[in-house]
Amino acid sequence: MMILSKFSLIPLTVHNCFLHKRRTMIILLFIVIIYIVYYAFNAIRASKSVPLEFLKYQRLLKENRLSRNICSVPRLDPWDRTILKYYVKPQPLHCKSLQNNVTALQDGVLTVLPEYRDKLKCRCRTFEHNTGVSDSEVKYDDWVDVVSNEGLRITKEFVEVECYNNGLLSSKVYSYHWNQIIKRNTSIITKRPFRASSISRPSVLMFGVDSMSRSNFIRTLPKTYAQLQKLGFVDLLGHVKVGDNTFVNLGAMLTGKRSTATREFKNELPDEWNIYFDDWPFVWKLFSDEGYVTFFAEDRPDIGTFNYFGWLCGFKFPPTDHYFRPYWLASYWSLLFRRSTPGCYSGTPAHSLQLNYLSEFLTKYAGTRSFALHWTQDLSHDYLNAINVADEDYERFFIENSSSFNNTIVIVFSDHGHRYDAIRETIIGRLEARLPFASILLPKEFVMKYPHTLIALRENSEKMTTQFDFYTTLTNIALGHFTNADSSNEIRRAYNLLDATPMMRQCFEANIPEDYCPCFHEMQLNVKESEEAANELLNFINARLEQSNENTQAAPHIKDGFVCSKLVLQTIEYASIRIPPVKLVRDPQVAGKVASKGVEISYRVVIRVKPPSKALFEGVVVKDLMNNVWKVSGEIERNNKYGNTSHCVFDPLLKKLCHCISASA
Questions:
Q1: CA geometry: angle at 225 spanning 224 and 230, to 5°?
Q2: What is the pLDDT of residues 27-46, one digit of tens each?
Q3: Among 492, 516, 540, where does a domain finish?
Q4: Is residue 197 part of a domain?
Q5: CA 222, CA 439: separation in Å to the nearest integer?
Q6: Whether 366 and 432 share a structural domain
Q7: What is the 3-state secondary structure (H, E, C) of 146-190?
Q8: Distance separating alpha carbons of residues 422 and 127, to the nearest angstrom
Q9: Is pLDDT at 267 greater than 70 in this prediction?
């Protein structure tokens, strides 16, 4: 038997160790190769999920120095076919009353209704902002009995009422939270008297609805929108958000500064949790300094802009003269509110509570300089269509308060479009998320004194505007600066919307991060790249002409004995493409998922056809890259004179297209 010493095993041990390391290296290398192949495959698959034609033109666009240096914000169709299935009209809001109406608060006096004065014993306590302590809880006063036959003068804006049976086994049968406007003569902010409004110092009302694109506003609030149009509001058709959420967009409107950093832009205000906002440069402070009474009301105390889930601390001191948060803190968490139908406070729609508070403010401060910010989230933040239940109430508000607008600049706006719903799977939905609603009304007497403001506003309504522009506009209103300044040759982040501004403006200049830039890009094409689009346009025109040749007694299109000649392409005079930014097709806001619908390229082509017509036509042809389907969009233009060559047709469109020839030719 051979005995091996421990020294004789060393070479074998070293050899085994080497083999073990080698096997480990091979396994690790194999894992790395699998990892690389897997992610390369996913990258290829992801790139292929974006249409190759789109990628080709994106590449050409980057290489093309002649592409137009202007932001082209698309004009969206609220009823675009790709998003229609996401619009569902909700059932009307029916608020079931959970208790009898026992008390009333009118003209500052709380009373028990006559039929309950002998049956119930009631008490109340006023409450207010817990000034100097917290914005997350209210400060209650002591309970006070309400003498049934006399009523009780309430000297604060918010009051809680409870009523009990008169029997031996007394039990609570009624509870409610009331609110009112207690008119002040001096500001709690500046301690100075309020000043009278005038044509040169109009009041300002900002009426905001969370998560509303312009298209969704038109879809879900049709009666309200019709009333705004009747009053003379001017829509900002190219209004763009400057950040993802309410905090950054509302912050930009109210402070003129960026509160959240992005890849391109630093934050200019603290972007932290657990902070108070009393020291922020809100525009309402400027209005206070100029003798305005100020107002801020925001529903949903849990997700408030400056109190979000308690991670933000709000205001240690009331930010405005009238501040509605204490009311919501007390009522929203009450047992009665929790038991009520969603969207209701017992038998009253919850949104009406804040609307009524605003209406009372406008009435009581008529003739006084006022700045009001009304912000609602409850119905629109989480649901695309639910806001429709408030349409008639909003319409009624703008009708009943229209006299208050005689010396008030009114801004109806949103922070951004909807960010969560399935509509984000479409290109239109992703665009809507970037294009919030914004519309402005200027008083008639104000326009008569400063006519340039309405001219400038209408011109600016066709350009790209941002939330930063609102702050600049508001500061000029607060200071009474309406001097017809011309800023059209200046390049800066924000402009006064009541002055002339530049036509050519890019997202970066306007401080809009690339992820939220909605600008489509246009680039000229050569003839070869545009042949298919040109032929699609010509085929569409010829199809219309062929229909016109099929005369009927019910709908005659053409004179007897004549036909429209078939058109034949001679030359392509001009062609360009207009494509969406890549961040819309593969949206970082939805984990880079490629849009399932609406990935389109628009071709603008100008074609000349052969004699006898020799017509010069211009039109837009859209190609759906996901389905390889073409369609002609908008109106076809005739770019050269055609005299009497279309004498045989009656339709205005056919007049531009048809070249009449004898049917026997």
A1: 95
A2: 767 776 765 665 554 444 44
A3: 516
A4: no
A5: 14
A6: yes
A7: ECCCCCEECCCCEEEEEEEECCCCCCEEEEEEEECCCCCCECCCC
A8: 42
A9: yes
Q: Return the pLDDT at 555.
A: 54
The 10s digit of each residue's pLDDT in 588-621 is 555 555 455 557 788 889 899 999 999 988 888 9
Question: Are residues 211 and 378 in contact, defined by beta-carbon separation less than 8 angstroms?
Answer: no
| Two structure tokens written together for 523 | 């680039």
Q: Do 510 and 572 belong together in one domain?
A: no
Note the pLDDT of residue 280: 98
H or E element that contains 138: strand 134-140
The residue type found at 520 is F
The enclosing domain of 471 has a CATH number of: 3.40.720
The residue written with tokens 């109340």 in the block is 124
Stronger pLDDT, 152 or 492, i.e. the higher one:
152
Q: How far is CA 225 from the centre of its chain?
A: 14
> Domain range spanning residue 346?
205-516
Q: Are residues 451 and 493 in the same domain?
A: yes
Q: What is the C-alpha separation between 520 and 600, in angstroms, rounded?
A: 11
Cα–Cα distance, 549 to 565 (Å, whole number): 9
Q: How many domains does the chain fold into?
A: 2
Tell me whether residue 408 is exposed, middle or buried, using C-beta atoms within 10 angstroms of its C-beta: 0 to 12, 13 to 18, 19 or more. buried
Q: What are the tens digits of pLDDT across the range 526-568?
A: 888 889 999 999 999 999 998 888 765 555 778 888 899 999 9
* Token pair listed for 371: 């700045």
First to last CA, the chain: 118
| Residues 6+ positions from 307 with CB-CB distance below 8 Å | 135, 136, 301, 313, 314, 325
Tokens of 217: 């506003």
pLDDT band at 389 (very low <50, low <70, confident <90, very high): very high
| Residues 59 and 529: beta-carbon distance below 8 Å | no
535 occurs within a structural domain:
yes
**Rounded CA separation 277/664 (Å):** 82
Residue ranges of the alpha helices (H) in 50-96? Answer: 52-63
Last residue of a domain, one of 516, 535, 563: 516
Task: Name the token pair of 580.
Answer: 């969406």
H, E, C per residue of 249-291: HHHHHHHCCCCCCCCCCCCCCCCCCCCECCCCCCHHHHHHHCC
The answer on 559 and 491 residing in a single domain is no
pLDDT tens digits for range 55-80: 555 565 555 544 445 677 888 999 99
Looking at residue 9, what is its pLDDT?
Answer: 38
Q: Give φ, ψ of 233 to 5 degrees.
A: -65, 150
Domain identity same for 443 and 538: no
> Which one, of 617, 637, 626, 534, lies nearest residue 577 by Cα?
534
Q: Which of 384, 388, 391 is nearest to 90 (CA)?
A: 388
Distance CA 443, CA 445 (A): 6
